């Protein structure tokens, strides 16, 4: 397992990455990490595309593996890892999950998606091999037919399900609709999105007992391992893994570094295990707040929804640039738009409401253009993993603005408010 300190990361990035060399050119060599510029994700990914010759990489990419981040558009974001970086990432999470929610002898069903440059299925498999706790893994995958999942749960006495909440909820719905009783499931572990409190209440009702819930951890293909879950964490809480990264929370408006508890800001991380494609002061797309005092090792924080750059609906990442591209390709007269993520209490699924400020009746055309730009959104809807996206034509005054600053909130995650 190879971990780097901030001085090494900054030095190599400044010397060998064309992107960071330019970004950091005015920063003194002895400046602390907090004084370095924050990365603009759109600019970062514009310079990271392999086919154009990545300006981010610090070396030739000759061994390792590549994953897709987002993957919702025709220009997916490819994230390369050397084999050493990938094993380090797996080891970091394996250590924490083995100690924090898995027990010796657990029978674990891996319901993550495999193939198509997804990482989570392989991640779960390698984590199993490296785990300090010995358990049995059943690799069914997210594409498995639900009756087959239920059969294997019964046949193999599986007591832990690991997967995306959207897949887990499909299994739970099948159990309820078919009145299946006496399954041995005791623990549910989720990743990629949060398993909401109302979803958990529904699951407990279906099983007729309290199920244990665990986050698989906070990580991403583009930025690597960030944080882990333990028994002292509440809803949406994690511990920063100090071995994996340096994390900052910054004010959304001013960029000011936030050190105090219970003040929401944008999360930025610097990966300590990714040097081929360095991740330095990079926005991971989430809002968060510290929930314990400054100075503690592996400091605890709480996720507070998505920030203004990315809307995550189920497993789908929708970038602001996706919508900007759609508008740029058409001749509509659009004043502004807003992406609002909701949770449907009846279907137990997320859905996206797009408010478009215009006087033109273009709801159907706009949605069709979004599906074309972001095919994964339509595919995920058709697989009934999320509810159908809604486009609403509104006046500018009907958009939701920040009550303090008066600025438009481009992305709103109202799943917390919906509880």
Strand content: 25-35%
Structural class: alpha/beta
- Number of structural units classed as domains: 3
Overall shape: it is globular
CATH topology of the largest domain: Rossmann fold
- Count of beta strands: 21
The spatial strand order of the largest sheet comes to: 8-9-10-15-14-13-11-12
Average the pLDDT over all residues and give the rounded result.
89
Can you give the helix content as a percent range?
25-40%
Summarize the main sheet. Answer: 8 strands, antiparallel
User: pLDDT below 50 for ≥5 consecutive residues: which ranges?
Assistant: none
Question: Brief description of this entry?
Answer:
The chain has 419 residues and is an alpha/beta fold.
What does this structure look like?
The relative contact order is 0.12. The strands form 5 sheets. This protein has an 8-stranded antiparallel beta sheet, with helices on one face. It has 3 domains: 6-81 and 218-306, Rossmann fold, CATH 3.40.50.12780; 86-215, ANL, N-terminal domain (Rossmann fold), CATH 3.40.50; 310-413, GMP Synthetase, Chain A, domain 3, CATH 3.30.300. Strand 3 (107-110), helix 5 and strand 4 (136-139) form a beta-alpha-beta unit. 28% of the residues lie in helices and 26% in strands. The radius of gyration is 21 Å and the shape is globular. The chain has 11 helices and 21 strands. The model has no long low-confidence stretch (mean pLDDT 89). It is α/β, with parallel strands linked by helices.
């Amino acid at each position: 397992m190879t971990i780097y300190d901030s001085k090494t990361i900054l030095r190599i990035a400044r010397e060998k990455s064309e992107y960071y060399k330019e970004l950091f050119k005015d920063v003194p060599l002895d400046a602390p990490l907090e004084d370095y510029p924050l990365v603009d994700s759109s600019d970062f990914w514009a310079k990271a595309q392999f086919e154009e010759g990545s300006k981010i990489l610090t070396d030739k990419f000759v061994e390792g593996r590549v994953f897709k981040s987002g993957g919702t558009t025709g220009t997916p974001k490819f994230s390369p890892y050397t084999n050493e970086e990938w094993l380090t990432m797996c080891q970091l999470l394996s250590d924490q999950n083995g100690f924090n929610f898995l027990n010796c002898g657990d029978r674990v069903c891996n319901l993550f998606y495999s193939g198509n440059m997804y990482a989570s299925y392989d991640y779960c498999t390698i984590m199993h091999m490296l785990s300090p706790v010995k358990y049995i893994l059943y690799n069914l995958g997210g594409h498995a037919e639900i009756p087959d999942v239920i059969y294997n749960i019964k046949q193999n006495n599986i007591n832990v399900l690991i997967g995306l909440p959207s897949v887990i909820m499909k299994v739970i719905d099948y159990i309820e609709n078919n009145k299946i009783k006496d399954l041995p499931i005791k623990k549910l572990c989720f990743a990629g999105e949060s398993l909401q409190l109302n979803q958990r209440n529904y699951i407990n009702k279906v099983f007729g007992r309290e199920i244990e819930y665990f986050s698989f951890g906070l990580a991403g293909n583009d930025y690597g391992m960030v944080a882990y879950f333990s028994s002292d964490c509440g809803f949406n809480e994690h511990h920063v893994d100090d071995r994996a990264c340096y994390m900052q929370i910054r004010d959304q408006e001013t960029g000011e570094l936030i050190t105090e508890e219970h003040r929401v800001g944008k999360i930025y991380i610097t990966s300590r295990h990714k040097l081929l494609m360095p991740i330095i002061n990079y926005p991971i797309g989430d809002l968060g707040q510290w929930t314990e005092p400054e100075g503690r090792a592996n400091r605890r924080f709480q996720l507070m929804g998505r920030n203004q750059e990315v809307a995550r609906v189920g497993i789908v990442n929708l970038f602001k640039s996706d919508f900007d591209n759609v508008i740029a390709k058409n001749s509509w007269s659009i004043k502004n738009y807003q992406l609002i993520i909701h949770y449907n209490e009846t279907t137990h699924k997320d859905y996206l409401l797009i408010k478009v400020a215009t006087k033109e009746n273009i709801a159907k055309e706009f949605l069709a253009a979004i599906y074309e730009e972001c095919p994964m959104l339509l595919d995920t809807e058709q697989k009934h993993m999320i509810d159908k996206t809604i486009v609403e034509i509104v006046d500018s005054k009907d958009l939701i603005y920040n009550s303090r600053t008066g600025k438009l909130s481009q992305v709103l995650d109202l799943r917390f408010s919906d509880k």
